[in-house]
Amino acid sequence: MQALIAACKNRSNEDFPAEVACVITNNSSAAGLKFAEREKIPTFVVADKPLDYDEINKILMQHEVDLVCLAGFMRILKADFLSKWNNKVINIHPSLLPSFKGLNAQEQALNAGVKIAGCTVHYVTPDVDAGAIIAQSSVPVLENDDVQSLSERILAEEHKCYVAAVRLIAEKN
Hints:
It is a single chain. By secondary structure, the protein is an alpha/beta fold. It has one domain: Rossmann fold. Helices cover 38% and strands 17% of the residues. Strand 1 (23-25), helix 2 and strand 2 form a beta-alpha-beta unit.
């Protein structure tokens, strides 16, 4: 999320076709929340158990949100919410989907012995990590990689890939 905020606010990126209207989280200690507050972006913490979909919808509508970008949001969204926001919710996943869906994707990649890993930005659907792919970026899996080192390289690509995907979507609309 910080990469998206930075892309939107970066003076050298004046042509970036999107803005971050608000940040919503279910985790009051999320690092991105503090970053957004420092950038003067409206922030909201919503009830987590159960997730307050009515409140989320209300906030999104009030801020005239066109695209919901999930970042570090580790909850499966309900089908009725996704239906309301059809093709308006995207996520970044640390694998080259359709490989290694779900949790621990980097560990799954290492265990499978792949030579290339990466990240995928995709539309969110009720089926986990199964939506249409918007963008992907790859990194080599190095001989001495462990979960942490591979995760760090993938995360660096995620920042670039997410920004590129948002640009692509915004420029189409």
